[in-house]
Design a protein that fits this description.
It is built from four helices and no strands. By secondary structure, the chain is an all-alpha fold. The longest helix is centred in the N-terminal third of the chain and has 29 residues. It holds the Pfam family DUF6512.
């Protein structure tokens, strides 16, 4: 969810920043929240179903995407509208987004030897 939502919010800002006089600080903060909410929701949804209820279903997995993205976008839009633009929000959100990108790239090639990162066999 990280890269598609980052692309969505990035292109949205580039296309509409002048037309709607968008705040970069609020936009980046909202994008970061949308990305975090969707990633946490999808991961939590998956582990609740597979570990707590012992149900493995592609429909449930894909369903989490169709719930997480609109939910995250709605929260992000609300935050965008209600947040007072501040430079610190822009910096913190940017640091979080860049850190997440770095972690994704690092763990892609150097996955830790922990059960969470080892795909199930069977």
């Amino acid at each position: 969810m990280y890269w598609p939502l980052l692309l969505w919010w990035g292109l949205g800002y580039l296309l509409f920043k002048n037309k709607y006089r968008l705040s970069l600080a609020n936009w980046v903060t909202s994008a970061m929240l949308a990305i975090l909410i969707s990633m946490v929701f999808i991961t939590s949804w998956y582990y609740v179903w597979t570990e707590a209820f012992l149900v493995e279903s592609s429909i449930i997995d894909v369903g989490s995407l169709f719930i997480a993205v609109p939910l995250a976008q709605l929260v992000a839009i609300h935050v965008y509208k209600s947040l007072t633009p501040r430079l610190i929000y822009l910096w913190l959100s940017s640091i979080i987004l860049v850190s997440l990108a770095g972690l994704f790239l690092y763990f892609t090639f150097n996955a830790p030897d922990l059960p969470f990162f080892i795909p199930p066999s069977g």
